[in-house]
Amino acid sequence: MTNHPEREMSLEFDDIQFPSLIPNTLSVGRLIWLTIKQPDEGRSWLAALVKHVTSAESAKTKGADQDFRLCVAFTWNGLKAMGIEKDDLDTFPEDYREGMPARADILGDTGPNSPEKWVGGLSSPDLHAMVFFYAHDKEIRDKWHNEHMSKLKQDGGISILSWLDWAALDPNLPREHFGYRDRISMAQVQGAGVEPTPGTMLLKPGEFILGYESELGIVESLPKPEILSRNGSYVVYRRNRQHVSAFRAFLREHGGPTHEEQELMAAKLMGRWRSGAPLVLAPEKDDPELANDPQRNNNFNYKRMDPYGYACPVSAHIRTVNPRDTVPDPRRRMVRRFGFTYGPALPENSPEDGTDRGMASLFVCASIKRQFEFIQQEWIQNPTFQEQMNERDPIAGSHDGTYDFTIPKKPLAKKIRGLPSFTTVTGGSYFLMPGIKALRFLAGLP
Predict the structure, then answer these.
(1) Residue-range domain boundaries for the chain
(2) Which of 253, 259, 346, 359 is 20 to 30 A from 163, alpha carbon to alpha carbon?
(3) How many Å is the Cα radius of gyration of the chain?
(4) For the whole model, what pTM was predicted?
C-alpha cells in the first residue's frame, strides 16, 4: 500500500464502533462467532442488526447510563461471504487475508497452542463474523442473545459456530484468574477525549483507526472500497486458558514457604504486584495506595529507573509487552480495550478441577503485522529479546520446559530453569471492525 501526507482530521465518533475509542465499563457479555451461508442472507441479517451497533458517540454520550452495547466484526472470509468482490478483497493486507491460524508459526502457536487444537470452530475458514454483546447484567445479555438467536432462526441463512460468555470476577476491580489487577496501562487515542495519566502514551488515531494520520504524519491508503475500510479498525481476538493450579504450585515451589515470598515471586513474573503496584516503584513490598493512584501507578520507565531489572526482571510480562523507553517505538502499541475473564474462579488451595477458565482479549490496531504480530514474535516469544538468554514472557509466552526466568539480584541472580506454561492458546482470529456506514454498505442499506 502507498502512503500520502494529509492534514489531521477530526474523529468521526458517530461512524466508529465504540471499542476503537471508548473503554468498556460493562461487567458481563457474550462473544458469538457466525457462519454466513449466502450474501443475501448475510445482508438481511446485518440490516436488522446494524441499528443496534454502538458507536463511539453513543458510548461517550450515554456513558454509565448505557446498559447494553453491541459490536460486529468480520474476517476476510466473512467479507467474501458478504459478497465483496475479489479485486477489492485483494487490497486488504496479507496478514488479515490469511487469518490467524495460517500464521501460527509466526505467532508461536505450535504444540499445545496449535490451531488444530482450538475450540469453538475458531480455526475454521467458516468463521465469518463476530458479534459481541456487553451488558450490565446477565439478564440483559441473555435477553439480547435470545432476540439475536430468534432472528438467525427466522432467516435460516446464518449459523452459529460457537459462543463464549464472560463476566468480571470482581465487578468493582478488573482482575484475572491469577489474581492480578488488569487494565492499568493502555495507550490512549488523540482526540478521543481521554486525558492520559502520567506514563501513558497518547498516540495519533491512525495507529488504531483506518483513514487517519499516524505517528509518521501520514494517512495510509485504505483497502477498497474505501467506504468499507474508513473508520474501521482491525481487531485481534485471543483466547488463553489459564492454568491456575499450576501457577500457584509454581509460586510455592520457587517463591518460598511464606505468603510474602510467594507474592514477591508473583510480582516478579508479572512486573507488578497483584494489586497493580509496579515493581519499579515498589520493589520490596506491595503498595496498594500506589496501585490505586492513577497519577502514579503507571508513571515509570526502565532505562533510567531500573536498567538491569533489579526491581522488575527484564523478561517480566509488563516489560516484555511494553518495553517503554528501552525500545521507544510507539508504532508497536495497541489498545487492549477488553480482557474478558471467562469461567469460574478456582478457590484458593483447591486442586485443578478441569474447568476451562481464562482470559479472552480483543486488541484494536491499524496494522496486525506491525503491531500485534511484531509484539508477539519479537518481544513475547523472542528468547533473546533485550539481550536475554533463553527467556520468554513468563505469562504470555509459549513454554515447554526449555526456557528460563532470571531474577536479577546481588550478589547472584536467581535463575529458574524449565519454566512451565501457565496459559494455553485455545482460539483466535483476525477481524475487521468496520465503521457504521461500512456496516450499512455491507447490509445494502443507503
Answers:
(1) 3-240+429-443
(2) 346
(3) 22
(4) 0.95
